[in-house]
Every structure is written in structure tokens, then in C-alpha cells.
Specification:
- The complex is a heterodimer of chains A (234) and B (831).
- Chain A has 234 residues and is of the alpha/beta class.
- In chain A, the strands form two sheets. In chain A, strands 6-7-8-3-9-10 form a six-stranded mixed beta sheet.
- Chain B has 831 residues and is α+β, with helices and mostly antiparallel strands.
- Chain B has 23 helices and 22 strands.
- In chain B, α2 packs antiparallel against α19 and α8 runs antiparallel to α19.
- The chains are: A alpha/beta (234), B alpha+beta (831).
- At the A-B interface, α1, α2, α3 and α5 of A face α1, α7 and α8 of B.
- The complex binds adenosine-5'-diphosphate and magnesium ion.
- The site of magnesium ion has 2 residues of chain A, from α1.
- The site of magnesium ion (MG) has 2 residues of chain A, from α1.
């Protein structure tokens, strides 16, 4: 399915499936998906609503475990780790940007950005966070609480937080889904810029085809199946 | 460390969320109730302990109705013990035209041998320790006596034939809690003035006491030496046995107050559990996020515990302050009842309350927080991903353990604890079921009402469990308050009504046979109906059916006290109108045979004495045998002179007797009493009206104090309501937004929510009225022996109070839901 060697991949899905039990019996929401992703690659995950994109993302990040198959993230086989072990892997190598921002309401912008740095045991969390807040253009608003920020500003904080730890892999689940078109576009520019600078691997779930086409590679899901895996022409 | 940092950083903002405020308020209430009661009982305990050492004003106190022979004083001297003498009797004193009954205490130099008398130089001025006793010619008076006489320091008092100067106000004496006349205010006098006063005559109610103190060894030696030689007329009391009773009484008061505080504590626990659940629920998103960012379970749980501890610390601090203030108020209410001033409280109550607050949080908040640990990180992507519910066994176990731990101190022993715990579970379950029943009943009205009411009632029914808990929480608080206000008044009124309007309101005691005619004349001269006199002969019981009363076995322990004490015997030709014959026969009016005796029913039951038994009395050194021929019931409410033992006519003719009488004296006739005591200073007049009033005052104050404690209960009920509303606030916001989006005016939405609280309030009021009525009926019949009369007013007030309190607090709890803008809510503004 891919020409890359397993050794070089930062993220590998090996025949992963996810079944859930529902009142109507067992339901397969992800079926036998495999791929390898190289360091620094930017990958878009596309597909209609309900295709299983978010489910896939959760499995790749170790937020949930597959029913079959396994995921190797930055050298760690997630299936062999317990919850705290997977949390450790995330603290060291994963960043997130969510559709609904998910900032901690009781912490201000700066403290939200500091949070993953501190969880990963970074030595100078405050300064690092300050720098990156500046990079996302919120220099003057660092002391504001989420409730005092607009949607676009919240997402900037979330992006700053995601890049703060210089993660090996950054997962973004429809990051512009809650924003208007213009704000969404600026947010995406910001994300692509930061991604280039930090050479992070980006896994971007999106509905937007033009966004998807800016990525190195596009994975298409439909009804839980990986229907195509295409690399950008250039 | 990381957890600590994070916990502190986010704490300030967490404090602003509603559920944390409720949780904190519940902890503060629990701590306040505990510390208020703790401080108060601590101070009472200390006062008792302080007095215990000086309760006799000596180590030993030898008492008698005759002057104590010098031989005892000499013997005490042989043991190198210090002694002081004391003579006491009730008498009426005058200041100008005002008169008042006082308990006169004449003391010799050296009094008190233990503790100190405290005096002040004028009414209500700074007090100090007195050195010595009043000098001859001077008296020290209790402030109550001065108030009754309208006199002050420096004025002159007529005491019998003497005119004495009031030298000081007595504010405290160590032995004030013992003695016969603690209801009559004290007058302290030098013992050398006694004989000149002319107040001690044949048969006056004089008590003599010899106070003895010294080092422990000598006291024990002396005590052992005299124990067997003590004549029957003398009684020995040691400080230890005297303080035992005070300790027991203080202990009972302590337990009762702690148990009332526990009710507030339990309700607070419900509020804590509810708001902790909400707190945990609201924190789930944050926890899931932190986990997705790499936080471990240990980190999550540490943050939760650190914040819980911080809440506990704030709760303890604020609660202690509130509790301290409340205690000051309680102490102020109770100031008159507790003689002397209370020592300052120690730090112990705060320490205990802190411990209790932590137990409360661990037992009722921790389970919800532990659950947070298992929040799936997947929740960041799928909002319906929830942690598994905490195990029921863990929740029930922890909360039960917490309640047991909290109760243990007030209850004492493990068996009692089990019983009380069982009782709590049974009562709580029963109340809960009643609450559910009432909620279900409310739901049935739903079809017959308008849209707002239907919506409100539907909500009450839908949140059945939480609704029932709220009904019970409020119902309990209201029950007690109703009981303490309306029912108390009802019972006191009912009792007063059973008293005859024409019942006697004055007792005359210590009338000599020779004085009866003159007394009759004094009243006749003023146009007042003279009293009937009842003879009274003092005696001691020696044998029952030939066996010494000291060796006999009795059905009840109280009997020992009765048979050993001095008996007041009387005789009568006819059965008194206030008596009812239960068994045997009353003697014919012209009976003049061998002595017969009629006995009161309760004494008969306690002592096991029955018709046909023979009792021997010793009267002034002579022996008298009498056979029991009847058993009587006495109506004490008649306020007629009544006697446990009444003998047949002639039986007591050869013995020295004094007379007592009861009579009704209206206010405008009181001048006759002044004439009487002027003419016969040795006769004591006891004013029942003022004693009744005093008793009533004590009851009022004590219930007021208990009421104050129960305000914490009501406040805890409000906390439960707030917690319950908080836990549904998102739902309510969404619903009210939806209703408004559907076109309902704000007023309708508001009416719907208020209808819900009105239903809860009515249910709580019904529960409270029913509870108070049942308890009132039990109290009336069991305790006061009154017929219970139904009071519809109770139901009216109960329901109105429930409606008012629940609607008002409900409004404050839910107003944000009513006022939120529909668009914001329906869009679900993300963070
Ligand atoms: N735990 C679950 N239980 C039941 N259904 C689930 C669960 N997780 C996902 N699904 C279902 O699987 C499908 C895929 O979901 P999701 O991955 O969120 O899709 P996408 O993100 O592509 O829109 C949806 O129909 C969703 O309802
Ligand atoms: Mg999705």
C-alpha cells in the first residue's frame, strides 16, 4: 500500500479495525486499515460525515484502542501500553487541534499553552509558551481566559498549545469546523506555516478538498474503509 | 508537583462555578454547625469542670436540720482540716415596701473553703473575687433579688428583726448549683447576725452545714472515720459524688446538641455529594483533554485531591468563623440559664470540625472525583464517551463509613453507633419513600393545569429521585422549626389551660400551730379568703415489714433515695379533692384506731410498697408504726398541698407539726401577703406565678438555642436544593432556550420553573406539617399527658413556609437558566 519502509515511519497503522456493540449487534466503524506515514509528511484524511475519520484519529493517537490490528506511534506499539503509558507517549510526541478548541476554561491563554509543556516536564514552560503565543499573534491577549476570546482566537491558542511541545505528530480534527470561512482560512495558513517551520508530521481531518490538496498525501475513508491513498502530484 | 501547580492555578476560576460554590457552602455549613455546637458544649463542659472542684465550696459537706454539734468540728480539727459553718433558710426580706423571697445563706469566716465568691460594687458593674465574707451588719445580695426589690448597693434591707446594709452584689458563688432554693435568689450574710434576726424558731426550715476541706489524705481519713458514726439526721456529701450529676447533665446536653448538629451535617453531606457529582461531570472534558495532552491518571487524581483539600481548608476556615459567631449568639441567648459566666472555648472544636469536614469530603465528594481518573481521553473527540460509574459498593461504603466516623463522637459506644446508624438508614429510607410518594402525587395533577404548571410538574416527576431528596431535606428542617415554634406554644398553652383558673398561686410554709389563727385573721382583715391548713410532720422511714429500709431491695433504684430521705407526713380525715383513690379504702371520718397510711401510686410502684405492708417511722426520736390501707393518685396540677404519705386522724397528734397552706392571691390582694410576713417573719411565702414564669422563660430560651442550631439544618436544606438545581442547570438552560425558540414568552418559561419549585415546596411543607403533627401528638400524650388537639394552622404555616423558602431559593438557583439567551445555548458555544 505504501512504498515507505516500516522502519522510517513515524506512524504506522497495521490492519486496524474498530467494532462497537450497539443495540442492533456488532457494528464495524473502521475496517482493516493499514498505512505508514513518514516523518514530516502532511496527510489529509477525507471522507463523508460518519466515514470513521475521527475514529481513525483516536486510534492513531492512542485515545482509544483498535479491536484488531495495532498502531505504532513514534516507535511505540500503543496496544502494548497501558493508559498511562499511552498518555506518556502523547505527552512526548503528540499535539492536538480540535474542532471545538477544547481549552481549559479555568486557565488563561498562556497557562493553556504551558499545560502540555509542563505535563511533558519541559524546563522553561513559561518562556516557551510566551514565544509561541507571540508567534500565533496573541501577544497582548495571553492573560485572557477562553471565555474572553473569539472562536478564531481560541483556535490560535489551541494551535500554539499543539506546537508548543514540538510534537513528532500533530493531529487536527476539522480544526476550522467551528469557524467562519475567512477565519478558517487564516487559521489554516497559520497551521501550515508552523508545520513547515517545525517539520512536524501533520494528520489533518477535513472536509475541505482544497485544504486536503495542500497536503503531501490524501487518505480517503468511506464507511470505515480506506478507499484511496494518493500522494500530491508535486 | 505538576499537579499541585495546576491545581492551584485553576482553583481560583473553579471557585466561580456554581457547583463549587454550593459544595463550599455545604462544607461551611457543616463546619459552622459543628463548631457552634462544639464551642458551646466545650464551654459548658469547662464550666462544669471548673465548678466540679468547687461545687460544694468544700471537699466535704456535712448537712443536718439541727445545729451541728461541736464534736464534729473538733474531730475535723484533729485531722487538721479547715472548717466553715453555714446556715440557710428561705425567708422574705423587705426594702421599703417591696418584699421578695430569698434564700438566705449565713456563713462564717473561711467560707468558701474551695473556689471563691465573686462580687461587684454595684448592679451590673465589674466583678471581682471577694476576700472574706460579709461583715456583721452587712449583706451581699444576688442581682435578681435587688431587681425584685428595686434596691441597690448601699440601701438597707429588713431581714427579720435586723436592718442590714447591702454591701455588694453577689455574681457567683461556687456552691450555687446545689441547695434547696436555687430558684430563689441568694442573700449572703454573716453567721453572727443569725440569732439577732429572730428568724430561727421552732420548726423553721433551716439547714445547717459544716464545710470541711484539707489535704486529700486527711479528707479521706476523716470521711472513712465518720461514715459509720453519722446519725440518720446528718448527711455527708463529697465533691466527687456531687459533681457526677453535673457531669452527667452536661454530657446529656452535649449529646443532644451534637445530634442536632449531625442532622445539618447529614444534609450538608447530601449537598456535597450532589455538587461533587456535578463538579466531576463538568471536569470530565478538561480531564479528557489533559489526558489527550499526556496527563496520567495519577496526575488527574492528584489535581482533584489537592483541590478537594483546598476546598476543605477554605470551608473549615470560613465555617469556623461562622460557627464562632453563632456560638456567641447561642451563649448570649443562654446566658441567664447558665449561672455564672462561661469560660472561653478552646481550639478543640475547630480541630474536630476540620476533621469532620475532611471526612465529609472524603466520604461524599471523593467517589465522584475518583471516577474522573477513568475518564476516557476519547471524550475529546466523542462527547458521549463517559467513565464507568463509580462502584455502588464503594460509594455506599465510603459514605456509610464517613457517617459512622462523624457520629461516633456524639454517640459514644459501638453498639449505640450501630443502632443510630440503623435508625438513620431506616428513617432516611422511609422519608425518601414518603418524598417519592409526594412527588408522584404532585405529578398526578399535571393533566388539569395550564402549560407552565404542566411543564413544572413534569419536571418534578422526571427528576423524581432528586426531587424526593429535596422534599425530604426541606421537610426535615421545617419539621423541627414548626415543632419548636408552633407546637411548643400549643403544648405550653394546652398545659396552662388544664390549670384551674382558680388554682392556688401561693404556698405558705412553716406555719406554727399557734400561728394558724393569726394567719386567718390577717387575711380576713384584708377581705381575702383565708387558706386551709395542712399539717406537716417530719419523719424518717426506718423499717418496712420489720426490715431496715437500708437493707431492703426495691423494684427501682429511685426508691432508695425516697426511703432514706426525710419524709413529710400529714394526716387527713377526708380524701383531698385533688386525690383519687385507686386501691384499698379510705378511713371513715371519725376513725381513731391504730395508725393507718395512704400512699401515692408512683411511690408505691417504685418502692414496691402495697396494701397490708407495715411501715415504721422515726419522728423526733419516737417510733410510729402504720399499716398501708390505700393507694392514691395525685393531681399535682391542682397546686394544692399534697403528700406522698397521709396518715389517719390522730396518728400524729403527739408529734411536733408545722402547717402548710396554698391559696389564690390576686394581684390587688398582695398587700395581705406583706402584712403576713411582717407579722410572721418565719413564715415563708412562695410565689408560684413567678416560679412558673421563670420555668417558662428557661424553656423559651432553651428552645430558642435549639432553634438556632436548626437554622443550620434549614440552610443545609437550601444547599441541597442549590446542588440539585445546579446538577440540572445545563438541561434547564437548554430547555428554556428551546421553549423560547419555540415561541414561549420568558414569563411562561419562568412560570414553568417556578411551578416546579412550588410543587417541591408544597410537598416539603406537607411532609413537615405531618411530621410536626405526629411528633406533637407523641409529645403531648407521652410527655405532657395532655390530649392532643389538631392544629390546622400548623399545616397552613408549614405549606406556606415550604412554598416561600423553596421558591425563593429555587429562583436564585435557577435564574441564570431562565435568563440565558436562546441563541447562545442552542449554538452550544464551544471552548
Ligand atoms: N463508540 C461508538 N459507539 C457507537 N457508534 C460509534 C462509536 N464511535 C463511532 N461510532 C459511529 O461510527 C461512525 C463513524 O464515526 P466518526 O469516526 O466520528 O465519523 P467522522 O468523524 O468521519 O464523521 C459514526 O456513524 C458514529 O456514529
Ligand atoms: Mg468526525
Amino acid at each position: 500500500m505504501s512504498s515507505h519502509s516500516a522502519d522510517g515511519a513515524v506512524l504506522a497503522a497495521h490492519r486496524i479495525s474498530k467494532k462497537v456493540s450497539s443495540p442492533e449487534g456488532s457494528l464495524t466503524i473502521l475496517s482493516d486499515v493499514s498505512f505508514l506515514i513518514d516523518p514530516g509528511e502532511s496527510v489529509a484524511v477525507v471522507g463523508p460525515s460518519g466515514a470513521g475519520k475521527s475514529t481513525l484519529l483516536a486510534l492513531l493517537a492512542g485515545l482509544d484502542l483498535p479491536t484488531d490490528g495495532h498502531v505504532v506511534l513514534n516507535g511505540a506499539n500503543l496496544g502494548e501500553l497501558d493508559e498511562d503509558g499511552r498518555a506518556q507517549v502523547r505527552a512526548e510526541s503528540v499535539g492536538f487541534v480540535f474542532q471545538s478548541f477544547h481549552l481549559v476554561p479555568s486557565l488563561n491563554a498562556l497557562e493553556n499553552v504551558m499545560l502540555p509543556l509542563e505535563l511533558a516536564g519541559a524546563s522553561d514552560a513559561r518562556n516557551t509558551a510566551r514565544n509561541i503565543i507571540e508567534q500565533v499573534g496573541l501577544k497582548d491577549r495571553w492573560s485572557h481566559y477562553p471565555a474572553q476570546l473569539s472562536g478564531g482566537e481560541k483556535q490560535r491558542v489551541a494551535i500554539a498549545r499543539a506546537f508548543a511541545t514540538e510534537p513528532a505528530v500533530l493531529f487536527a480534527d476539522e480544526p476550522t469546523g467551528n469557524l467562519d470561512t475567512r477565519t478558517g482560512a487564516t487559521i489554516m495558513e497559520l497551521m501550515f506555516d508552523l508545520n513547515k517551520i517545525s517539520a512536524t508530521t501533520l494528520i489533518l481531518v477535513t472536509h475541505n478538498h482544497s485544504l486536503a490538496n495542500r497536503c503531501d498525501r490524501v487518505l480517503s475513508l468511506d464507511a470505515g474503509l480506506l478507499v484511496s491513498d494518493t500522494k500530491a502530484a508535486a | 508537583m505538576k499537579a499541585l501547580k495546576f491545581a492551584f492555578r485553576s482553583f481560583g476560576r473553579e471557585l466561580r462555578s456554581g457547583e463549587v460554590v454550593v459544595l463550599l457552602a455545604a462544607v461551611i455549613l457543616a463546619v459552622a454547625a459543628l463548631t457552634a455546637v462544639g464551642f458551646l458544649t466545650d464551654r459548658i463542659g469547662k464550666a462544669v469542670a471548673r465548678q466540679a472542684n468547687e461545687v460544694l465550696a468544700a471537699d466535704l459537706r456535712l448537712r443536718s436540720q439541727e445545729p451541728i454539734p461541736d464534736s464534729w468540728r473538733e474531730m475535723a480539727g484533729d485531722y487538721e482540716l479547715r472548717t466553715a459553718d453555714m446556715v440557710s433558710f428561705p425567708t422574705v426580706v423587705f426594702a421599703g415596701d417591696e418584699s421578695a423571697l430569698t434564700s438566705l445563706l449565713a456563713v462564717s469566716n473561711g467560707y468558701p473553703l474551695r473556689g471563691a465568691v465573686r462580687i461587684s460594687d454595684a448592679l451590673f458593674s465589674e466583678q471581682r473575687e471577694a476576700d472574706g465574707v460579709p461583715v456583721p451588719g452587712e449583706v451581699w445580695a444576688d442581682s435578681a433579688l435587688l431587681a425584685r426589690l428595686g434596691a441597690d448597693v448601699g440601701d438597707r434591707l429588713s431581714v427579720g428583726e435586723l436592718e442590714l446594709r447591702i454591701g455588694s452584689v453577689v455574681t457567683y458563688r461556687p456552691d450555687q448549683s446545689i441547695g434547696f432554693a436555687s430558684l430563689a435568689p441568694t442573700l449572703l450574710m454573716n453567721i453572727s447576725d443569725v440569732s439577732a434576726s429572730g428568724l430561727i424558731g421552732e420548726g423553721s426550715r433551716v439547714r445547717y452545714a459544716l464545710l470541711i476541706a484539707g489535704n486529700e489524705e486527711s479528707v479521706t481519713g476523716f470521711n472513712a472515720a465518720i461514715e459509720d458514726e453519722l446519725p440518720d439526721s446528718m448527711r455527708l456529701r463529697s465533691a466527687e459524688e456531687s459533681s457526677e450529676r453535673a457531669y452527667a447533665a452536661a454530657d446529656r446536653a452535649k449529646r443532644f446538641l451534637s445530634l442536632t448538629a449531625i442532622i445539618s451535617l447529614l444534609l450538608s453531606a447530601v449537598a456535597v455529594a450532589m455538587s461533587a457529582r456535578r463538579f466531576a461531570h463538568r471536569r470530565m472534558d478538561t480531564v479528557a483533554l489533559m489526558k489527550s495532552l499526556g496527563a496520567t491518571q495519577g496526575f488527574v487524581i492528584s489535581v482533584a485531591i489537592v483541590q478537594l483539600v483546598m476546598l476543605g481548608v477554605i470551608g473549615v476556615f470560613a465555617g469556623s468563623i461562622v460557627g464562632f459567631a453563632a456560638e456567641e449568639i447561642l451563649a448570649w441567648i443562654l446566658a441567664d440559664i447558665m449561672q455564672g459566666d462561661l469560660p472561653d472555648p478552646g481550639p478543640m472544636p475547630v480541630i474536630l470540625a476540620s476533621g469532620s469536614a475532611m471526612v465529609l469530603l472524603i466520604g461524599f465528594a471523593l467517589p465522584s472525583l475518583i471516577q474522573l481518573r477513568n475518564t476516557p481521553p476519547l471524550r475529546v473527540l466523542r462527547h458521549d464517551a463517559m467513565p464507568p460509574a463509580p462502584s455502588r459498593i464503594l460509594v455506599a461504603g465510603l459514605s456509610l463509613a464517613a457517617v459512622a466516623a462523624l457520629l461516633y463522637r456524639s454517640v459514644g459506644d459501638p453498639t449505640m453507633l450501630l443502632i443510630v446508624l440503623g435508625g438513620i438508614i431506616v428513617i432516611a429510607t422511609a422519608l425518601y419513600l414518603v418524598g417519592r410518594g409526594l412527588v408522584a402525587l404532585m405529578g398526578r395533577f399535571r393533566s388539569g393545569v395550564g402549560v407552565a404548571w404542566r411543564y413544572g410538574l413534569a419536571n418534578v416527576a422526571r427528576r423524581g429521585r432528586a426531587s424526593a431528596v429535596q422534599v425530604v431535606a426541606f421537610g426535615l428542617g421545617l419539621t423541627v422549626l414548626l415543632l419548636l415554634t408552633l407546637v411548643r406554644t400549643d403544648l405550653l398553652e394546652g398545659w396552662r389551660r388544664t390549670l384551674d383558673e382558680n388554682a392556688p398561686n401561693h404556698f405558705l410554709i412553716n406555719i406554727q400551730r399557734s400561728e394558724t389563727e393569726s394567719v386567718t385573721n390577717v387575711f380576713a382583715a384584708r377581705g381575702v379568703k383565708p387558706p386551709d391548713f395542712a399539717p406537716l410532720v417530719r419523719a424518717r422511714m426506718t423499717l418496712i415489714n420489720g426490715v431496715s429500709v437500708k437493707e431492703r431491695e426495691y423494684p427501682e433504684a429511685d426508691a432508695k433515695w425516697f426511703v432514706n430521705r426525710e419524709q413529710n407526713l400529714s394526716w387527713a380525715t377526708h380524701l383531698s379533692a385533688s386525690n383519687e383513690l385507686l386501691e384499698g379504702e379510705w378511713w371513715p371520718p371519725d376513725y381513731d384506731g391504730a395508725p393507718l397510711v395512704s400512699i401515692e401510686e408512683e411511690v408505691a410502684a417504685e418502692t414496691g410498697l402495697a396494701i397490708g405492708d407495715r411501715v415504721q417511722f422515726e419522728i423526733a426520736g419516737q417510733l410510729l408504726d402504720a399499716e398501708i390501707t390505700s393507694v392514691r393518685r395525685i393531681n399535682w396540677d391542682s397546686f394544692m398541698p399534697n403528700f406522698f404519705l397521709v396518715l389517719s386522724p390522730g396518728a400524729l397528734d403527739d408529734y411536733p407539726a408545722t402547717f402548710i397552706a396554698s391559696m389564690r392571691v390576686e394581684d390587688h390582694e398582695k398587700g395581705a401577703l406583706v402584712d403576713l410576713v411582717r407579722k410572721h417573719p418565719t413564715i415563708s411565702v412562695i410565689d408560684l406565678d413567678s416560679i412558673l414564669q421563670q420555668v417558662r422563660g428557661i424553656i423559651e430560651k432553651a428552645t430558642m438555642a435549639v432553634q438556632a442550631v436548626f437554622f443550620f439544618t434549614l440552610a443545609a436544606g437550601i444547599a441541597v436544593l442549590f446542588a440539585a438545581v445546579q446538577s440540572t442547570i445545563d438541561e434547564r438552560r437548554f430547555e428554556s432556550a428551546m421553549l423560547r425558540a419555540l415561541g414561549a414568552r420568558k414569563r411562561i418559561v419562568f412560570a414553568g420553573i417556578m411551578a416546579e419549585f412550588a410543587a417541591l415546596g408544597v410537598a416539603a411543607g406537607v411532609l413537615a406539617a405531618a411530621g410536626a403533627s405526629i411528633l406533637a401528638a407523641i409529645l403531648a400524650v407521652q410527655l405532657f399527658e395532655l390530649p392532643y388537639s389538631f392544629n390546622p394552622f400548623l399545616w397552613l404555616v408549614g405549606v406556606a413556609a415550604g412554598l416561600l423558602v423553596v421558591c425563593a431559593s429555587g429562583y436564585f438557583a435557577a435564574r441564570s437558566a431562565i435568563n440565558s439567551a436562546p441563541v447562545d445555548v442552542l449554538r452550544g458555544a464551544p471552548n
